[in-house]
């Protein structure tokens, strides 16, 4: 059974809902030991008393705040709660905002919130209200010894507490050299944009998280297995690796690449041929043919074909729609808690 790493309540208005906080992520990182390359002996991590040099067991280690050089205030876990019991035990929602208004760069780490008391009704009520209004609750929460900004987001039947970065923790983009909005100056024309849009439409799919997995991990395990089978396990291969990106930097005809990509993803070879035909001037009809066409009875005019509807806007990502799913992401990296 999952173990809560924090217990308290969600608060909005005068409503209090007892909840527990549960980690929403698990790591599948490969575990590597640090070795002394001279004899491949593991390099250990030792906690020791800097005054005596003796190793210290974890059960005698306490937290201390150094208020003067060499002088400490010793604090217990209970002291961290005692500093402000309300803040350390409450996810206090102060505002409700549109989920779409929160930019992805603000998201840091997800947790699950689950009811711990008998107030299941309050939990369900908040969840459904967030779903139907497509809002999220902006809240402050203290985890361990730090106060975090967070968003309470509905995901199916669960409420997710997304830890957010404060605005002053995000670097400005002023020093980045990125293209401006003057597309004409950049040489981007309408035909290229239209073709790029068609490529996006052709590659649009339903969001199915289960179909994505860490293929690099599989490749790395394959390399490790190959080294084991070859018996070359004691020396790392430090030969230079070719730069893959160098072969992709000299893009001359981007329109040609877009058309080929559209054909590959949508089977749109005929569409692109038709586009090229539309751009060619129509051949003039010979006089006899023109005369025959004039004498022939005019066929009934067919109703103009309705323009093809653009692909429906894809459903917002887990962080831009309710119910929402927290990042995997999404996501990667700086651990906030």
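-> sequence recovered:
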């Amino acid at each position: 059974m999952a173990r809560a790493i924090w217990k308290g309540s969600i608060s909005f208005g005068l409503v209090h809902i007892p909840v527990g906080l549960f980690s929403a992520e698990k790591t599948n990182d490969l575990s590597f030991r640090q070795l002394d390359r001279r004899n491949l002996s593991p390099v250990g991590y030792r906690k020791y008393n800097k005054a005596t040099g003796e190793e210290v067991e974890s059960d005698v280690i306490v937290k201390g705040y150094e208020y003067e050089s060499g002088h400490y205030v010793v604090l217990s876990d209970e002291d961290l709660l005692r500093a402000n019991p309300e803040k350390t035990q409450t996810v206090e929602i102060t505002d409700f905002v549109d989920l779409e208004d929160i930019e992805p760069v603000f998201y840091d780490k997800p947790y699950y919130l689950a009811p711990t008391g008998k107030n299941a009704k309050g939990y369900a009520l908040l969840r459904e209200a967030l779903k139907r209004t497509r809002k999220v609750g902006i809240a402050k929460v203290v985890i361990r010894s730090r106060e975090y900004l967070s968003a309470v987001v509905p995901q199916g039947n669960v409420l997710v507490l997304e830890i957010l970065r404060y605005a002053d923790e995000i670097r400005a983009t002023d020093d980045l050299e990125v293209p401006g909005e003057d597309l004409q100056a950049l040489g981007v024309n309408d035909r290229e944009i239209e073709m790029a849009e068609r490529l996006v439409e052709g590659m649009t799919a339903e969001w199915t998280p289960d179909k994505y997995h860490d293929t690099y991990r599989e490749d790395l395990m394959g390399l490790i297995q190959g080294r084991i089978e070859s018996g070359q396990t004691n020396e790392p291969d430090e030969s230079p690796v070719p730069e893959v990106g160098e072969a992709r930097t000299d893009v001359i005809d981007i329109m040609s690449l877009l058309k080929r990509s559209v054909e590959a993803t949508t089977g749109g070879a005929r569409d692109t041929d038709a586009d090229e035909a539309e751009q060619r001037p129509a051949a003039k009809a010979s006089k006899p043919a023109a005369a025959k066409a004039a004498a022939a009875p005019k066929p009934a005019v067919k109703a103009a074909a309705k323009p093809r509807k653009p692909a429906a806007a894809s459903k917002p990502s887990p962080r831009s729609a309710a119910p929402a799913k927290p990042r995997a992401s999404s996501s990667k990296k700086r651990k906030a808690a």
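Residues 277-337 have pLDDT under 50 and may be disordered.
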